[in-house]
């Protein structure tokens, strides 16, 4: 039984009475074992597995815990536990209730949002502050949904951003039209999953006897209201306020901090026996995090008593000397590559160390920053695949036309609506068998000066201007070609879309569809545009060698997606797996290159935390937007507590490219690795007014 393997603290927490239980589980104290022990205890108390809900920060974490339960109780019992992220669990519930859920990623909905935003003009407003751009406004709205529970968006802007009050009504109108379009096309984003799930929980009893929540310190207000709406008889929340690092995404540390206030009957248990790190590593981490205010008292006890190496501070004269130096140390290390991690605060840091490691022939894999699934080439291929699965997906169509020259989001939306009109509601029918009675599928927009709308009538042109392009005769007669703003390039793009989907009609297997898309002329436009952009030099010329290498990298990514598609036999299941599971998939092998957020919950024998310079870590720019020095300090705590045996902290004094001098991070001073007088001297040398 899992309970027999727990220490006294873990056992006491895992067998806590039903009610509201908070377990403060510091880094390396065995929180996963405690959660698995709790589930085992519930089952032994005759709680049915389907009456248990396990909410985790990643689907991978949920799968690992369920597997551990299965090792003792069997897969049949363990599989009945409802486990996953807030979003995955909500998705499954809504699927059962509504049958079909069209889940869209943020980047896809941003394209739809831009198509709405671009119909407004802010030039008629006299204001010293520029209006938010479309993408940033979308992010602001998403943050609002995760953090605000009562005030409407317009009022929230008025109270939160005084300088944007003049735009508040237009912002709100954009939001209203955006939400109406989402509803019309049945689109659901990740926030919507939680909002709909919350409504469902308010209306009916979901049947859970206990809800277990991992990484409780990173829950946001929206997730908090969802938990409250479920009204479970028993709550088992596991977290550590010192590892709350998602404030930028709406995580609210006050939720874990106010647990005993919100639940007067709550019991708080503490796990303080660290099984991961050595005494010197843990001592450094505790020394720095102690500068943050204590919410719940705790004192970590190290169980590893053998002789250990103290954390090392690596100082380099120049930025790239740092990357080369660390790569050299990794090359000389006897630690297996898979047990080494380089942890970074900023993507620029990762780029430098990744390039240097690869230059030295040291294999590495990167997680955090731009992932495989966020790369433009994979997004474009999946947009084409999405239209195969759901021809009503206007978002995929609009986003795809980013690669059609001269076609912006607004025109792409007009084309999609027109094709649906020509096909009597079917985009594909409009593409292949347009209604012969419709000669003008384009409609005039309304004009509203107050809300910043402007008239942009899509005049008709002659399809005959494309006669010499050699387009398929069955496509030449389509009224869609009459859009006056279509160029020869965009008409060819539409034609290649026509050809591809004619070829995809009878394909049943995902791997065959992925291969067909990757080899199509339509995807060729994507490859050409991306490789050209990436090979364009500062003087505007094209580096042909770089372009060829870029095209080869794109093809390799297509091959990887093809390999991922092999196990799937159903188009919709494959696409949903790519949307829901992409954050848990990594590629490559060797040394781990991790953003701090991606390193959460992981551990390695040897860890390098790089670029510990003031401004980079702590990141002053992000602090000025929505962060704090306390949040940055928690990030530092998380990064160093990933190390089990050896910890290296590094910084550089100078960047020869930007001709910038660096000051060591204040965390190095707080850790006692840099004397106070040296820290002060460095600040004075840089001309800073801050005191160490």
Could you characterize what this model shows?
This protein has 692 residues and is an alpha/beta fold. The protein folds into 4 domains: 2-99 and 192-271, 3-Layer(aba) Sandwich (Rossmann fold); 105-187; 309-363 and 589-686, Rossmann fold, CATH 3.40.50.300; 374-582, PCRA, domain 4 (Orthogonal Bundle), CATH 1.10.486. It is 48% helix and 11% strand. The protein has a 6-stranded parallel beta sheet, sandwiched between helices. It has a 6-stranded parallel beta sheet with strand order 11-16-15-12-14-13. It has a two-stranded parallel ribbon with strand order 4-5. Helix 2 crosses helix 3 and helix 6 packs across helix 18. The longest helix is centred in the C-terminal third of the chain and has 22 residues, at 544-565. One of its GO terms (cellular component) is DNA helicase complex.
């Amino acid at each position: 039984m899992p309970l027999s393997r727990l220490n006294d603290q873990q056992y006491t927490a895992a067998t806590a009475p039903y009610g509201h239980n908070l377990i403060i589980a510091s880094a390396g104290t065995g929180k996963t074992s405690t959660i698995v022990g709790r589930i085992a205890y519930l089952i032994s108390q005759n709680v049915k597995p389907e009456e248990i809900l396990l909410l985790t920060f990643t689907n991978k974490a949920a799968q690992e815990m369920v597997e551990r339960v299965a090792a003792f109780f069997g897969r049949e019992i363990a599989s009945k536990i409802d486990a996953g992220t807030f979003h995955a669990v909500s998705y499954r519930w809504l699927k059962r209730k509504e049958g079909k859920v069209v889940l869209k990623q943020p980047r896809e909905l941003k394209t739809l949002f831009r198509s709405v935003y671009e119909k407004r003009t802010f030039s008629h407003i006299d204001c010293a502050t520029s209006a938010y751009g479309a993408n940033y406004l979308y992010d602001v709205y998403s943050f609002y949904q995760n953090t605000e529970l009562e005030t409407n968006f317009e009022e929230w802007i008025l109270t939160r951003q005084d300088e944007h009050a003049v735009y508040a009504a237009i912002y709100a109108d954009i939001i209203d039209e955006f939400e109406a379009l989402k509803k019309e096309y049945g689109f659901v984003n990740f926030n919507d999953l939680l909002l709909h799930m919350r409504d469902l929980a308010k209306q009916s009893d979901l049947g859970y006897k206990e809800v277990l929540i991992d990484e409780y310190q990173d829950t946001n207000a929206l997730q908090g209201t969802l938990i409250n709406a479920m009204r479970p008889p028993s709550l088992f929340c596991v977290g550590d306020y010192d590892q709350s690092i998602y404030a930028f995404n709406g995580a609210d540390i006050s939720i874990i901090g106010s647990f005993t206030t919100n639940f007067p009957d709550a019991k708080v248990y503490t796990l303080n026996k660290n099984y991961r790190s050595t005494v010197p590593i843990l001592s450094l981490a505790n020394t720095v995090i102690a500068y943050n205010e204590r919410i719940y008292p705790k004192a970590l006890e190290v169980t590893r008593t053998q002789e250990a190496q103290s954390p090392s501070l690596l100082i380099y004269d120049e930025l790239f000397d740092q990357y080369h130096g660390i790569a050299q140390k990794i090359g000389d290390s006897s630690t297996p590559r898979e047990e080494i991690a380089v942890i970074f605060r900023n993507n620029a840091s990762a780029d430098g160390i990744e390039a240097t490691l690869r230059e030295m022939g040291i294999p590495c894999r990167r997680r955090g920053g731009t992932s495989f699934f966020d790369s433009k080439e994979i997004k474009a291929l999946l947009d084409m695949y999405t239209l195969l699965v759901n021809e009503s997906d206007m978002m995929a169509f609009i986003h795809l036309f980013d690669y059609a020259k001269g076609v912006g989001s607004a025109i792409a939306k007009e084309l999609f609506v027109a094709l649906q009109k020509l096909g009597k509601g079917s985009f594909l029918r409009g593409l292949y068998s347009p209604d012969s009675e419709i000669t003008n599928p384009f409609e005039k927009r309304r004009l509203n000066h107050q809300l910043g709308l402007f008239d942009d009538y899509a005049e008709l042109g002659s399809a005959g201007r494309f006669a010499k392009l050699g387009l398929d005769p069955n496509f030449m007669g389509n009224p869609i070609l009459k859009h006056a703003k279509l160029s020869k390039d965009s008409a060819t793009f539409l034609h290649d879309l026509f050809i591809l989907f004619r070829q995809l009609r009878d394909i049943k297997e995902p791997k065959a569809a992925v291969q067909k898309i990757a080899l199509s002329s339509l995807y060729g436009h994507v490859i050409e545009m991306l490789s050209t952009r990436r090979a364009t030099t500062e003087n505007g010329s094209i580096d042909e060698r770089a372009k060829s290498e870029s095209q080869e990298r794109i093809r390799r990514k297509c091959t990887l997606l093809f390999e991922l598609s092999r196990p799937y036999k159903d188009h919709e299941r494959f696409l949903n797996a790519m949307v829901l599971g992409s954050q848990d998939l990594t590629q490559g092998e060797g040394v781990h290159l991790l953003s701090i957020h991606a390193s959460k919950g992981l551990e390695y024998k040897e860890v390098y935390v790089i670029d510990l310079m003031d401004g980079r870590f702590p990141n002053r720019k992000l602090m000025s937007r929505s962060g704090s020095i306390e949040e940055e300090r928690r990030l530092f705590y998380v990064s160093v507590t990933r190390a089990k045996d050896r910890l290296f902290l590094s910084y550089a004094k100078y960047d020869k490219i930007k001709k910038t001098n660096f000051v060591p991070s204040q965390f190095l001073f707080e850790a006692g690795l840099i004397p106070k007088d040296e820290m002060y001297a460095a600040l004075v040398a840089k001309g800073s007014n801050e005191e160490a």
